[in-house]
Design brief:
The chain is an alpha+beta fold and 490 residues long. The chain has a domain of 183 residues: Up-down Bundle (Butyryl-CoA Dehydrogenase, subunit A, domain 3), CATH 1.20.140.10. Helices cover 45% and strands 14% of the residues. It contains 18 helices and 14 strands. The strands form four sheets. The chain has a six-stranded mixed beta sheet, with no helix packed on it. A hairpin with a 6-residue loop joins β3 and β4. α10 runs antiparallel to α17. Bound molecules: iron/sulfur cluster and fe (iii) ion (FE). Fe (iii) ion binds next to loops.
Length: 490
C-alpha cells in the first residue's frame, strides 16, 4: 500500500504506526517560506504530530475513555471516530478531552473530526429523508472504513471569507468560500480555501463542510465531502506560532518541548472528489443546520481547555512552591480562583454532554444552549487563569535568560546562584516551570489555550447568537408573570 493512500490498508494500532502512516505522502506543505518535504521530521512541526500521536496511546486506565464499541462495525474503535450512542458516550468524549489536555498541554487536534462525523451522520440522514438523496449510505460506508483503519479525520469548515459583509455568492472573488467549481459525471471539483485548519497536515482525511447559512442561489457552496489529505490539488501553508522557532534551539526554552498544536491554510486548487465521498451537494437549506449541529458538538469539546488549565494551575502552584510561598493567603486564593474558573468551563461542557438528545439518525447530540455557554466561558476564563498564572510566576516569566546562558561555562554558575528560588530546588527546575507558564500564556501553546479559545468553533458573538435563540424568553416571562400575579398575555 502506498503510504500516501490510506483508503485501503491495515489499521493503525499505535503512535508509531500513526507516525509511519504520515511518512512519504509528498504533501505540498509550506512553513516559513520553505517547502517541507517530510513534516514528520521537521522539528517545528513534529510537536504537533506528537500531540495527535498521543491519542493513539491511551494508558490502560484510560481505555474506556479512548475507545468504544462501534455501532457500525461492532468492533472497538477510537472514540474520535465513534458515533455517540448515548449521553454516556458524549460524557466520555468530554472526559477524554480533558484527560488529553492534561497529558499534552495543547490542542491534540482530533475533536474537529469527531464532531464533524457526528454532525454529518445525523444531517445526511435528514437530508436524505427530505430530498431522497443517497448521502447517508455513502457517509456510513466511508466512516466504517475509516473506523476500521483508525485514521485521523480533520474537519474543514471555516472559509477564508473575504469581505465579511458579503455572502459567498456576492464576493468579488467567487473562490473565497470553498465551492463546487465543476460537476463531472463521476464527481465534483472543489476550489477555494479553508482557514485555521486544526491538525490538517497531521490528518489522513478532511471533512469539508459549509461554514454558514446559504442563500438558495448559492448552491455551489453547499458542499460537504471527504477529501484525502494527500489528494492532488491541496496545498497546506502552516501558521506561524509564537516562539515556534525555539524548537530549533533546544528543549528548555520551549517550555513544552514534546507537544504543540497546528493550524494551516488549506488551498483547494481544483480537487476532484468522486460521488461516493460527496455528502451534500447543492442542498443550501441544510447548511445552517449543519453548522449548528457541528458547533453544538464542538463548542462543548472545548472542555479540552479545562485539561490544559489543569496543567497551568499545576505550574502556577509549582512556581509558588519553588518561591517558598505556597501557603501565602493570596497565593492560595489565586489558585482557588483559577480552579473555580477552570471547573466552571468543565461543568458546562460536561452538562451539555449529559443533557444530550437523540437525533433521528440514532446518534446523540449535546444540549445546544449549554454547549454554547461552555464555549462562551472558554472565550474568557483561560485569559483570567493565564493572568493569575503570570501573577504568581512573577516577572521572571518574561525576563529569564536563555537555556544557552544557563548552561554557559562562565555566566551559567552566576545564573544558577542568583536565579535560584528555594535553596533545595535546582535552578533549572525553576527555569523549566517558568518556561512552561510562558509557553501556555504567551508562547507556542498560548495559540491554543488563549486565541483558539477565543475564536475556535466560532468567535464569542457566534455563541451569543445561539444563546439568545435558545434562551426562550417567552417561557421565562411566563414564569415571572405567574409568580408576580400577572395574567397570561393574550
Ligand atoms: Fe480538540 Fe480542543 Fe483542539 Fe478543538 S482546541 S481540536 S476541542 S483539543
Ligand atoms: Fe478548534
Amino acid at each position: 500500500m502506498a503510504a500516501s493512500d490510506r483508503s485501503i490498508g491495515a489499521p493503525i494500532r499505535s503512535s508509531e504506526e500513526y507516525l509511519a502512516s504520515l511518512r512519504g505522502r509528498r504533501l505540498t506543505v509550506y512553513l516559513s517560506g520553505k517547502r517541507v518535504e517530510e513534516p514528520v521530521d521537521h522539528p517545528v512541526i513534529r510537536p504537533s504530530i506528537n500531540a495527535v500521536a498521543a491519542t493513539y496511546d491511551a494508558a490502560p486506565e484510560d481505555l474506556d475513555l479512548a475507545t468504544a464499541e462501534s455501532g457500525l462495525t461492532g468492533e472497538r474503535v477510537n472514540r474520535f471516530l465513534h458515533l455517540a450512542g448515548s449521553p454516556a458516550d458524549l460524557v466520555a468524549q468530554s472526559q477524554m478531552q480533558r484527560r488529553l489536555g492534561q497529558l499534552t498541554g495543547t490542542c491534540f487536534q482530533r475533536c474537529v473530526g469527531m464532531d464533524a462525523i457526528n454532525a454529518l451522520f445525523s444531517l445526511t440522514f435528514d437530508v436524505d429523508a427530505a430530498r431522497g438523496t443517497p448521502y447517508h449510505t455513502r457517509f456510513v460506508a466511508w466512516l466504517a472504513a475509516v473506523q476500521r483503519q483508525n485514521l485521523v479525520v480533520g474537519g474543514a469548515m471555516t472559509d477564508v471569507k473575504g469581505d465579511r459583509s458579503q455572502s459567498p455568492g456576492q464576493q468579488a472573488d467567487p473562490d473565497l468560500f470553498v465551492r463546487v467549481a465543476e460537476r463531472r459525471p463521476d464527481g465534483v471539483v472543489l476550489r477555494g480555501a479553508k482557514a485555521h485548519q486544526t491538525g490538517a497536515v497531521n490528518s489522513h482525511w478532511l471533512l469539508v463542510m459549509p461554514g454558514l447559512r446559504l442563500q438558495p442561489e448559492e448552491h455551489d457552496y453547499a458542499v460537504a465531502c471527504a477529501v484525502p489529505v494527500a489528494a492532488p490539488g491541496l496545498t497546506f501553508v502552516l501558521g506561524r506560532q509564537s516562539s515556534d522557532s525555539r524548537s530549533l534551539e533546544g528543549d528548555l526554552d520551549v517550555g513544552n518541548a514534546r507537544f504543540a498544536g497546528q493550524e494551516a491554510l488549506v488551498v483547494f486548487d481544483d480537487v476532484f472528489v468522486p460521488h461516493e465521498r460527496v455528502f451534500l451537494d447543492g442542498e443550501t437549506e441544510f447548511a445552517a443546520d449543519l453548522v449548528e449541529r457541528f458547533t453544538a458538538y464542538h463548542r462543548r469539546s472545548y472542555v479540552c481547555k479545562a485539561g490544559v488549565g489543569d496543567v497551568l494551575i499545576g505550574a502556577a502552584a509549582l512556581i509558588a512552591d519553588y518561591h517558598g510561598v505556597p501557603e501565602a493567603s493570596h497565593v492560595r486564593d489565586k489558585l482557588v480562583e483559577m480552579g473555580h474558573l477552570n471547573e466552571t468551563i468543565y461543568a458546562t461542557g460536561i452538562a451539555a454532554s449529559h443533557q444530550g438528545h437523540p437525533t433521528a439518525a440514532g446518534n446523540w447530540e449535546p444540549d445546544h444552549l449549554l454547549a454554547n455557554v461552555c464555549k462562551q466561558h472558554v472565550t474568557r476564563f483561560p485569559y483570567e487563569i493565564a493572568r493569575l498564572a503570570q501573577d504568581l510566576a512573577g516577572g521572571a516569566v518574561v525576563t529569564l535568560p536563555s537555556e544557552q546562558d544557563l548552561h554557559h561555562p562562565e555566566v551559567g554558575p552566576l545564573l544558577d546562584k542568583y536565579l535560584r528560588g528555594r535553596a533545595d530546588v535546582p535552578t533549572e527546575h525553576r527555569f523549566r516551570v517558568l518556561r512552561l507558564i510562558e509557553n501556555l500564556t504567551l508562547g507556542r501553546n498560548a495559540v491554543g489555550y488563549l486565541t483558539e479559545s477565543l475564536h475556535g468553533a466560532g468567535s464569542p458573538q457566534a455563541q451569543r447568537v445561539v444563546i439568545r435563540r435558545q434562551l426562550d424568553l417567552e417561557a421565562r416571562k411566563a414564569l415571572a408573570r405567574r409568580l408576580a400575579g400577572i395574567p397570561p398575555e393574550g
